[in-house]
Amino acid sequence: MESIMIYVPIIMAVVGLLFMAVKRSWVLKQDAGDGKMKEISDYIYEGALAFLKAEYKLLTIFVIVASLALAGITFLPGATTHLLIVVAFILGAFFSALAGNMGMKIATKTNVRTTQAARTSLPQALKVSFGGGTVMGLGVAGLAVLGLTTFFIFFFHYFMGGVWTNSADMTIVLETLAGFSLGAESIALFARVGGGIYTKAADVGADLVGKVEAGIPEDDPRNPATIADNVGDNVGDVAGMGADLFGSYVATVLAAMVLGNYVLRDIIIANPDFTDIFGGIGPILLPMAIAGFGILFSIVGTLLVRIKDNNAKEAQVQGALNMGNWVSIILVAISCYFLVQYMLPKTMIMEFYGEEPKDISSMRVFYATIVGLIVGGVISSVTEYYTGLGKKPILAIVQKSSTGAGTNIIAGLATGMISTFPTVLLFAGAIWSSYAFAGFYGVALAASAMMATTAMQLAIDAFGPISDNAGGIAEMSELPKEVRTRTDILDSVGNTTAATGKGFAIASAALTSLALFAAYVTFTGIDGINIFKAPVLAMLFVGGMIPVVFSALAMNSVGKAAMDMVYEVRRQFREIPGIMEGTGKPEYGKCVEISTKAALREMMLPGVLTIGFPIAIVLLGMLIYPDNNQLVAEMLGGYMAGVTVSGVLWAVFQNNAGGAWDNAKKSFEAGVMINGEMTYKGSDAHKAAVTGDTVGDPFKDTSGPSMNILIKLTCLIGLVIAPILGGHADGHETIVEKTETVVVEQPAVVGQEKSEEITVDRQKDSEGNVKATVVISTKADNNEIKTEEKTFEGTDAEVNSQIEAFKKARK
Amino acid sequence: MESIMIYVPIIMAVVGLLFMAVKRSWVLKQDAGDGKMKEISDYIYEGALAFLKAEYKLLTIFVIVASLALAGITFLPGATTHLLIVVAFILGAFFSALAGNMGMKIATKTNVRTTQAARTSLPQALKVSFGGGTVMGLGVAGLAVLGLTTFFIFFFHYFMGGVWTNSADMTIVLETLAGFSLGAESIALFARVGGGIYTKAADVGADLVGKVEAGIPEDDPRNPATIADNVGDNVGDVAGMGADLFGSYVATVLAAMVLGNYVLRDIIIANPDFTDIFGGIGPILLPMAIAGFGILFSIVGTLLVRIKDNNAKEAQVQGALNMGNWVSIILVAISCYFLVQYMLPKTMIMEFYGEEPKDISSMRVFYATIVGLIVGGVISSVTEYYTGLGKKPILAIVQKSSTGAGTNIIAGLATGMISTFPTVLLFAGAIWSSYAFAGFYGVALAASAMMATTAMQLAIDAFGPISDNAGGIAEMSELPKEVRTRTDILDSVGNTTAATGKGFAIASAALTSLALFAAYVTFTGIDGINIFKAPVLAMLFVGGMIPVVFSALAMNSVGKAAMDMVYEVRRQFREIPGIMEGTGKPEYGKCVEISTKAALREMMLPGVLTIGFPIAIVLLGMLIYPDNNQLVAEMLGGYMAGVTVSGVLWAVFQNNAGGAWDNAKKSFEAGVMINGEMTYKGSDAHKAAVTGDTVGDPFKDTSGPSMNILIKLTCLIGLVIAPILGGHADGHETIVEKTETVVVEQPAVVGQEKSEEITVDRQKDSEGNVKATVVISTKADNNEIKTEEKTFEGTDAEVNSQIEAFKKARK
Fold first, then answer.
1. Distance between CA B668 and CA A561 in Å, rounded?
2. Among A279, A799, B309, B569, which residue's CB has the most CB atoms within a 10 Å radius?
3. Is 0.95 surpassed by the pTM of this model?
4. Which parts pass through the membrane (chains A, B) (predicted)?
């Protein structure tokens, strides 16, 4: 029996997309301003599209190559992966690109409309800019849920006829579905890294020649790199972030489904007649349902984001955003309670590694989702503490700026480093507690619950760069000062939400990676990952190194690309007559082209590193240990763990150090008290702070945020490779059932009762046929152990009933 | 039978110490120069002694508190640790302090003599400064081998009567010996961190006010902080480094002995009658023997370090050092060959985790030692590439300096980060290959071989700061320019050896930690460390965070202490009349006092973090899992792995970034070509490079080098806590012996032969009584398994012979 519940997430996704369409047409109907504004906005729009077009051209080649490689994998001996994974991969990549593209288009259309709205009032400007963000958020979330659910339903019908058969078949469904996630995450990697390099190359290049050398203000239309700079905000902060969260969203739900499948397996082993009103797959559908309802509650949240007072300050705007965010989080929490109660059996038997299987009530799964929601909330506060204006760490950096750039840099680095302390403790606590509540299924559902408000998070995130752009357009169009003041308020709030958004992104990436990691271990069927084996430990080291080297590559890329930009801007200042007087027209397109080319060229090496290393490890491992795929699987697992642990640390370090430097610099705008003197922009201390910000730029906008994708993609690649490593392909699993103590006769000495232990060892071939061997050892008081062994064959259900019958017969 | 071999390392150590005494009296006999030189040298000597005195006073309190805690541990139920561990701990601390003290005394005596020698010739100056280094190196190595061997012999007699009984007794000997290592490493932590903070606070403070504000040159006698700066070189680079390598040396040899004990256990299980000409403990004595011979060959190496040409340049001086170093390394390699052949059985049975026990020939152990020696050599080249003058990375940083401090900093950070790539691959390769050759015993012996030339390494390391000081004295005493030119050549070589020495230190720390980690796993008797268990994974995260936070604390401490220094120097410039004209005398003592106080105050928090966290994890773990010490042991193991992986990464990153910035700045002294123009000191690019160097200073001299000790100490604390976690205390170990296939009757179907598997499960109580249960399962072709089980009690040897008899009787 197929349940209607399987279609519910699709309905929610469609509702989200419809709401998005309505919002989109409302935004587009807003006044886009007059001549100059429109002209600039068109430049930005075209520059952004040109970049995406060039990027997609390159990525098409990548997708073709990767598809061929994936197809190759499915033909490897022993691999259970189905060729359909290639289709899923291509469509995952396509959906991800579509989501990024859609978000960027609306963002580049909204910016000028926000500027225009800011000419009337601040509430209207917020309404327009946040409207654009909402379109982006709902678009990404809607496409993610729609794509993932549709593919799941398709594969579920294709491989299982739409009816639950056994967990091995479902594993094939989910393995194939992993292709969708892999496609999405691969595109996300390039979008994040490419976008990050683009935006910082343009930003740093524009600043170095414009602000520092020529002494003209930021966003001055005479600066040839200024359009590239504004394009960068869109390709980096909007398209990059969109692709990132699209990838996270899909990966999280997928991981939870994979783990749900294993929960189901254990339920069925304990109770072969198990079924529920969802066709027996409630635990697998639950994460999709949470995601679907999350879209609805995000819509509710977005409706609450508004202000009335035209003289509102940052605090009110931030308050409005917080209100919307918290309401959607609380609604998700409530929905989790009902969904968990409705969709899961009252109690489940779960296996905790190295312990006896335990009875877990569905309430514990609910607690795990609450853990995820709490982490999502707390991480924002932690990030805000370390990067927020007026907070202690920022004030300390400001003070240190008075003794020069060196001490400013040291203080910023130290702040970023120290910020790993509460963050890692929070993550460690979340892992531990959600696992304690409901095993790795709990960890995955914690992540799912956290990600359920993705649409809302993304709306808040995207509104920042839109407002930033709106301010830029106001400046370049030489609009009255009050317009810029209004957009500046929005921009300033946007800076804070950018930092907290990064905290949210890394928290979700950390939990998602762990869930994927758990799914990987279960897919390969290894006995955990033992770092006491030297090859595994060696790979833990190698994995730990990757995020560091990746970050360095990204930073160097920004440096190189920025230098290209510097030379071009200098050339234009030198060669175009009248450019500084405003009579000569800068060649904006040249700068856009340079950023585009540099970003595409430089995103290759980090990409190759990310994708190549896990594959290299598997090949090397198989070469050295040709008969020990399990060890190779453990080595890859060690590598994944290394990348995750180190990646989380370096993400937090880089994001927060970068954010802290940025706001330390911003503090000088309103003036700061240093050694009893008010110090402002232009002072030596401010110059030192500007240096810090330059260092922080690639940290917080290029290398730092890329870590999220690096760790998720690494774990996804592992998951896709897993079936080759044979694990569940040879289908060998041993289940130790409960030891029963049967007192056959009153023993002479207490403690010498006759006891028996039942072990079931089952192997499954690729067609789902099960061969189970039951071993019953009986220990008597005379130090003698007797064992009986019997083998059964058939489908999972058949074998289970035979075993039950056999056990009953013995009694 | 007790072998004479056990005393050989002591003899070598005494030879080393005697040679040291001769060298020392030669150095002290050298001319210490005239009035002003002597006066300055006395200031430095007294300042250094004052710091050590204050430090030791504080550390005495620490040692008392830690001793009480350790004593408490021995009384915990189930702990096998003997109270004597407290004595070992105290003496380990004492020896470490003694080694640091001795080294620093000779260094502060040699500096002025080097200055005086430099007035005659460069070869003589090298002879004196390297002579001082040699005294330091031999003193540290001699004391380490002497202390460790003496304690081993004492405990071996105390617990085992000087005769091999069984591996459980030997475990108690080595557990107690671990106290010596713990004491040494604890002192090293404070010496390194305190010294690092001291030296950088003085350096940065002196530079900021002296060079930058007042515009007087480095080491100018008018600068009140100049003596503190020179004292800092001694307490940081000499005493800190000495204590660090003393700790590494002891820990490495200890870890190898612990693993040797387990090698021996497996040998004896396979062959209960095993003995050798070393009283049956060859594998345990081997690492001590390698260390002993290493002292001799280091002496040979030091004798080769000399130059003849008074007009020699850096290259010749470096060449002389390299010659001595390589000769001692090659001699150690040769001695390893003979020692391995002589002291180990031709083949040993070793257990590789998760695999069948293997026959390992002693030649494979030799190969493992070669791996260690190669790593020691290659790491120097790698470090030199990333930090050496004239190399590509440095040139790139120099170029980036032209666009300001921001780009210089980004380039330096990126260089440090990229440098983790070859370094980690080298370490991972070393772990993997030395393990593949001879298991974790191989890893430990690789580390031991590498550390065998510690005396030579330390001589090379210590000669740097001595020459640096000599130059300072020349400057402050206003000696002729050629003197400073000569000491500058030595100083410049010293900068390179300082960087490569740090590479050596982290390589040794990495291998030592892994060996300790392996010893820990074996001590606790856990089944490896499975990061698929969420609490273990959570601790891996927490462990990974610690080095980052530790580094941040150290950096902040330097910042705070430097500010104190700045205020004091400013005050003296303001208040002491005639100070700038050279008529008023600066109060050097006040600055020394400030550095001393700040260093002692600031070293506390990092120390508490390092020591407190492992203990907190164990307590928390025991609270949450009161009945599952094994899980708690795995959690602590996960933490140790996290600290090690992350610590190695951050050490390499910080050391190399710091070294790179330093030499990028130095490049400007000879002039560099930037964009086609020669650029010198005083240019804007140079100023940017100076900013980079300021950031690099705490990186390379405070937080970076502390990582070594952090990871070693963490693993040692784990090792000392191990017995509480019950592992071998409940003495439960299961040995799966080889499966024999006995064809009882010709089977009807091939593959259905009757086979049997023998499992021996042994438990040992704290008095060494063994209870072993032998289970023999026989599988017949009718799917039926029969098992026989029999239990034996007695000593290890008795039980072994009973089992043999039982097995023979069955046949």
1. 26
2. B569
3. no
4. 6-22, 58-76, 82-100, 135-160, 172-191, 246-264, 284-305, 326-344, 364-387, 408-432, 438-460, 504-523, 535-555, 604-625, 631-653
Looking at residue A11, its pLDDT comes to: 93
CA distance B110 to B119: 14
Q: Are A558 and A199 in contact (CB under 8 A)?
A: no
Q: Does residue A245 fall inside a structural domain? A: yes
Rounded to 5 degrees, φ, ψ at B444 are -65, -40
Rg (CA), chain A: 28
Question: Kind and range of the H or E element at B74?
Answer: helix B35-75
Per-residue tokens: A390 = 């007026």
Name every chain A residue with its beta carbon within 8 A of the beta carbon of B535: 432, 435
Interface of A with B in 730-789 (CB under 8 A): 775, 777, 783-789
Separation in Å, CA of B309 to nearest CA in chain A = 41
Q: Are B640 and B718 in contact (CB under 8 A)?
A: yes
Give the integer Cα–Cα distance in Å for B426 and B503: 12
Q: What are phi and psi of A42, to 5 degrees?
A: -65, -40
Q: Which residues contact B315 (CB under 8 A, 6 or more apart)?
A: none
- What is the Cα B48 distance to its own chain's centre? 23
Low-confidence ranges of chain A (pLDDT < 50): 1, 727-732, 736, 738-747, 751
Residue pLDDT, tens place only, B525-574: 787 888 888 899 999 999 999 999 999 999 999 888 888 888 888 889 88
CB A89 within 8 A of CB A179: yes
What are the phi and psi torsion angles at B716 (to 5°)? -70, -40
Please enumerate in sequence order all residues whose Cβ is within 8 A of that of A670, keeping only pairs 6 or more positions apart, or say none.
none
Asked which of B729, B764, B781 is the last residue of a domain, the reply is B729
Query: Are residues B643 and B710 in contact, defined by beta-carbon separation less than 8 angstroms?
Result: yes
* Range of the structural domain that residue A29 is part of: 4-528
CB B372 within 8 A of CB B333: no
Residues A668 and A690 sit within 8 Å (Cβ to Cβ): no
**Same domain (yes/no): B570, B647:** yes
Q: Domain with B765 in it: what CATH number?
A: 3.10.450
What is the least distance, in Å, from the CA of A337 to any CA of chain B? 24
Residue A336 lies in a domain: yes
Does any domain span residue A16? Answer: yes
Q: What is the length of chain B?
A: 811
Residue B4, both tokens:
């004479």
Burial of B577 (0-12, 13-18, 19+ CB in 10 A): exposed
Residues ≥6 apart with Cβ < 8 Å to B72: none
Q: Which of B694, B729, B764 represents a domain boundary (last residue)?
A: B729
- What is the residue-wise DSSP string for B462-503? HHHHHHHHHHHHHHHTT--HHHHHHHHHHHHHHHHHHHHHHH
Q: Are residues B799 and B712 in the same domain?
A: no
Q: Give A-chain residues touching B790 at CB under 8 angstroms.
A: 783
Distance CA B500, CA B700 (A): 12
Side chain identity at B397, as an amino acid letter?
I
Per-residue pLDDT, A70:
87
For residue B788, the chain A residue with the least C-alpha distance is: A784
Map residue A541 onto helix, strand or coil: helix
Residues B542/B617, Cβ–Cβ less than 8 Å: yes
A210: which 2 tokens? 């414009």
User: From the CA of A552, how many Å to the nearest CA of chain B?
Assistant: 5
- What are the Cα distances from residue B599, in Å, to B114, B199, B561, B592, B643? 28, 9, 7, 11, 24
Is residue A489 one of the residues assigned to a domain? yes
Q: Which residues of B touch A777 (CB under 8 A)?
A: 787
Q: Are residues B35 and B70 in the same domain?
A: yes
Written as six digits, the tokens of A194 are: 């490419």
**Overall number of domains in chain B:** 2
State how far the Cα of A363 lies from the Cα of A341, in Å rounded to an integer.
Answer: 7
